[in-house]
Specification:
- The N and C termini lie far apart (about 35 Å).
- Helix content is about 45%, strand content about 15%.
- A 3-stranded parallel β-sheet has the order 1-3-2, sandwiched between helices.
- The relative contact order is 0.28.
- It is globular and about 45 Å long.
- The chain has one domain (about 5-90): P-loop containing nucleotide triphosphate hydrolases (Rossmann fold), CATH 3.40.50.
- The chain is an alpha/beta fold.
């Protein structure tokens, strides 16, 4: 069975997202989803996201819950037959 998850890990701004998008184009005919902690973080309300990004104020954000939820979502995607390229770096 081919791999279901490819994990790309590295520091912020190291080219992980660029590499992920390139892999998505090179791996057909299979469809690979791009999923990351950023996928979840950027779903935060704009005012909270602004405080996190501009003021580096994460006080309203439960980082452990976001990480746990992100990993649970990744597991659910894979368990349901999706191929996923997971782009990860330390957050929260």
């Amino acid at each position: 069975m081919p791999p279901q998850v490819i994990i790309i890990s590295g520091p912020s701004s190291s080219g992980k997202t660029t590499l992920t998008k390139a892999l998505q184009e090179k791996l057909p005919p299979s469809i690979w989803l791009n999923f990351s902690f950023d996928t979840v973080i950027y779903s935060l309300p704009p005012n909270v996201l602004d405080r996190c990004n501009v003021k580096d104020d994460w006080s309203d954000v439960d980082g452990k819950a976001l990480i746990s939820g992100t990993l649970a979502a990744l597991r659910a995607l894979v368990d349901n037959g999706n191929r996923v390229i997971f782009d990860t770096s330390k957050r929260c």
